[in-house]
Amino acid sequence: MAATTTTSTTTMTDGISKHHDLRPVSNHQTTHTHSQTQTQTQTHDGLQFWQFMVAGSIAGCAEHMAMFPVDTIKTRMQALGSCPIKTVGVRTAFRAILKSDGPSGFYRGIAAMGLGAGPAHAVYFSVYELCKKSFSKGNPNNHLAHAASGVCATVMSDGVLTPMDMVKQRLQLSGGVGGAYSGVWQCVNRVFREEGFKAFYASYRTTVLMNAPFTAVHFATYEAAKKGLVEISPNHVDGNNVDEETLLVHATAGAGAGALAAFVTTPLDVVKTQFQCQTDSFGVDNVFLSSTNLAVMGVCGCDRFKSGSIRHVIKTIVEKDGYKGLLRGWVPRMLFHAPAAAICWSTYEAAKDLFQDRNDHNSNRTV
């Protein structure tokens, strides 16, 4: 109906009035101005900054909540592995948790992770997207840019997650009757009162040194695997890859990337667990621990170290367990990160799609 009216008006006024000839041009300019304004309020991939943060937060919470029991088993294995206790495997750790705490033991510390994972992943994915846009210079195949973006993202997000990750691991290791910690806030208050603020960041350096290569391998592998899966898709059409990036592609690429990155960085993860599960800061006496048989050791038997040196911790682990001690927990770590990465990436991309549809709908309605 609008098209017919425009044609009629043009015919009647053609060559008579320039005022009416300007009307369609004015509409075009209005649309163009709106498009420029819309672009200015968006950051990357048609999404605004806060939308990346919300999508990342949802993805992070989904990842850690779903795979938390596996993470608990991994933590138990790593903590016991470098102490003078017999070798602990997946089955042994699983049975020990069931015996001491029952099924609920697999979820000790999940509240701490929930409090940390949301904000940390909001920072993680938003920083990644912004850095990727800046570093890649419009080249979607620049894997070095993806890796560098991942490293920047993990340095920022680890500053948010590390304190709650420490609380989470202490709770995971203090189950059973007479456990050192009964809950998140009791753990936070006790650590702060008796060990000081620095205890919350005792493993930050190790965490960054672990997660930097983890993230570099993870993001580079994820982007490369995603591209390869799209290209071998039976419905692939050259020049139209985006439509083929289904949730299955994101999940498969994420799982492969997560498993590889997890295995490569397991030794540093073992060191991180040792740092986080000390009951004091590098050898300061804690008399109150004598009632729980932890006077000379950390939570659940972890060693206390007089030095914050990563090299010293690695040397101690090798002396007690050999080099295999540095790979303690690699099986549950891979079992955690493969499905966790699949859940995280598919959830993240799904949330981005929802926001994109919302933005497109609002844009069309405004126009």
Structure description:
The structure is a single chain. The chain has helices spanning 2-13, 18-21, 23-40, 49-66, 68-81, 90-101, 110-136, 143-173, 184-195, 204-231, 247-264, 266-276, 310-321, 330-366. The chain is mainly α and 367 residues long.
Query: What string gives the helices and strands in order?
Result: HHHHHHHHHHHHHH
Secondary structure class reads: mainly alpha
Radius of gyration: 27 Å
The coarse overall form would be: globular
The strand count comes to 0
Largest sheet: none
Q: How many helices in DSSP terms?
A: 14
Q: What percent strand? A: under 5%
Any low-confidence stretches, pLDDT <50, length ≥5? Answer: 1-43, 81-85, 280-301
**Mean pLDDT across every amino acid position:** 75
The termini sit apart by 18 Å
Proportion of residues in helical segments: 55-70%
Gist of the model:
This protein is an all-alpha fold.
Features:
single chain; globular; mainly alpha; 14 helices; 69% helix; 367 residues
Give the arrangement of secondary structure elements.
Layout: H1 2-13, H2 18-21, H3 23-40, H4 49-66, H5 68-81, H6 90-101, H7 110-136, H8 143-173, H9 184-195, H10 204-231, H11 247-264, H12 266-276, H13 310-321, H14 330-366
Helix pairs in contact: 4-7, 4-14, 5-6, 5-14, 7-8, 8-10, 10-11, 10-12, 11-14
